[in-house]
Amino acid sequence: MWCYSYSLLLVISKLLLVRALPVATFTIDNLTARSVELNPYPDKPRVVFGQDGTFKLTVFADIHYGENPWDWWGPEQDVNTSRLMRNMLAMERPDYVVINGDLITGENTFRENSTSLIDTIVQSLDEAKVPFSSTYGNHDNQINITHIEEIERETSITPFSYTRRSPPGVGGDGGPGNYWVPVYERETDTSPALVLWFFDSRGGVYTNGTSMPDWVDESVAAWIADETKAMNVAWGPPESRSALAFVHIPPHTIQAVQETLNSTVNPGLNADGLGQGSTQATTNPASAGNDSPFWDALNTHVKNLRAVVSGHDHGDEWCAREPTYDVIFCFSKHSGYGGYSEEGWGRGVRSFVFRSSLPSDGIDSYILLEDGTVRARVLLNREYR
Ligand SMILES: *[C@@H]1O[C@H](CO)[C@@H](O)[C@H](O)[C@H]1NC(C)=O
Ligand SMILES: *[C@@H]1O[C@H](CO)[C@@H](O)[C@H](O)[C@H]1NC(C)=O
Ligand SMILES: *[C@@H]1O[C@H](CO)[C@@H](O)[C@H](O)[C@H]1NC(C)=O
Ligand SMILES: *[C@@H]1O[C@H](CO)[C@@H](O)[C@H](O)[C@H]1NC(C)=O
Ligand SMILES: *[C@@H]1O[C@H](CO)[C@@H](O)[C@H](O)[C@H]1NC(C)=O
Ligand SMILES: *[C@@H]1O[C@H](CO)[C@@H](O)[C@H](O)[C@H]1NC(C)=O
């Protein structure tokens, strides 16, 4: 008996020791506790650049599973979207995938089985064995479904998911999807070359049917400041790494950017005029500008922010410089057979290919349609205007 307990103790202490190692590596004054979170995936493989030194990230957006399951066309749309995802993954062979919001059209789902659609959505990613994570959108917060339910389902059914929930008190009611994912150039590096940031722009309705704020909660601003401070202490100056940010609903400043597009510099479909509800905090005039704390914090604290990427507006797929912070914004590409669309818009993905891990090197980005057509190719770098 004694022996048994002793060996159990030994096993436990060994486990503790293994878990404690990353902490010891990063122990710096009072940041000891925070450092634990700087290795947020102790049980998962690191996300790394490819053997050739590049990193390809492919974005699916607005896949809108679950429309009208009682009609023939709803389930057929989902079969089609899964086919599109498989085909795109086979063509692109990305190092990482982002699903940028509106995974499920929650208005049409049932309380008892809403999140079982997540199982279908992740199948193609599991088959491709590609690490991925999600932002969640306004259609993912409805009477019969919530962001947190989808996050819990996603992270419980597949080891390839790197989605996380925000720490307590961050993100506001209904907005738990604020987190970041480190990407290393090499498996053994002590600090990442790229940090992927994910923000929860909420929207939709609470389960009681009242509408939810459609912007990233201001509590996220202080969290960005804290996280970047901890990163700088643990990993060194931020100038040595890049960042890329994803949020389902575009920040409100993007609305004005649409007025200044030039089809040479900003190629790609521009068929969705941005108006009320197209960008954050514009559904209700009383909330105008409420996404500013988030937007200001992101652009102030996150250095080498290479682009901010949104979905939500299915008829837009351009990249452009946002002038107030001189930051590149890109729309994703509507990927789902579900969700509104018009003749000729097409469906596909946006990919980003980092030419190297250097923040000064360019990122090739383009839209790839389901039929293999590539369009709206741009080189995103400091010269991009
Ligand atoms: C650690 O935190 C304590 C209490 O907040 C503070 O008094 C102390 O100066 C901090 N130490 C360092 C090295 O920052
Ligand atoms: C599914 O895809 C097929 C082939 O592209 C197309 O003919 C069909 O209309 C699509 N169905 C729906 C419901 O979108
Ligand atoms: C939510 O789910 C319940 C139980 O399945 C169903 O009766 C109801 O119609 C759904 N409500 C909405 C708004 O979809
Ligand atoms: C959920 O349940 C409803 C009604 O019980 C059914 O029609 C629908 O197909 C189910 N959806 C999923 C995704 O299992
Ligand atoms: C609905 O739920 C939200 C979030 O819990 C709450 O703030 C709001 O007061 C509720 N509205 C009603 C009418 O109960
Ligand atoms: C659009 O951009 C191109 C390339 O910079 C430039 O040559 C052209 O003059 C611009 N067109 C307009 C209308 O500003």
TrEMBL record:
Q: Which Pfam families match?
A: Metallophos
Keyword annotations for this protein? Signal
Q: Where is the Calcineurin-like phosphoesterase domain?
A: 56-315
Q: Where is the composition biased (Polar residues)?
A: 277-287
Write the signal peptide boundaries: 1-20
CDD domains recorded: MPP_Dcr2 (cd07383)
Region (Disordered), start-end ranges: 268-287
Quick check: keyword Endoplasmic reticulum in the entry?
no
Spell out the molecular function terms from Gene Ontology.
hydrolase activity, acting on ester bonds
What InterPro entries is this protein classified in? Calcineurin-like_PHP, Metallo-depent_PP-like
Cellular component terms (Gene Ontology)? cytoplasm
Q: Which PANTHER family match?
A: METALLOPHOSPHOESTERASE DOMAIN-CONTAINING PROTEIN (PTHR32440:SF11), PHOSPHATASE DCR2-RELATED-RELATED (PTHR32440)
Protein name, per record? Calcineurin-like phosphoesterase domain-containing protein
| Organism, as annotated | Pisolithus microcarpus 441
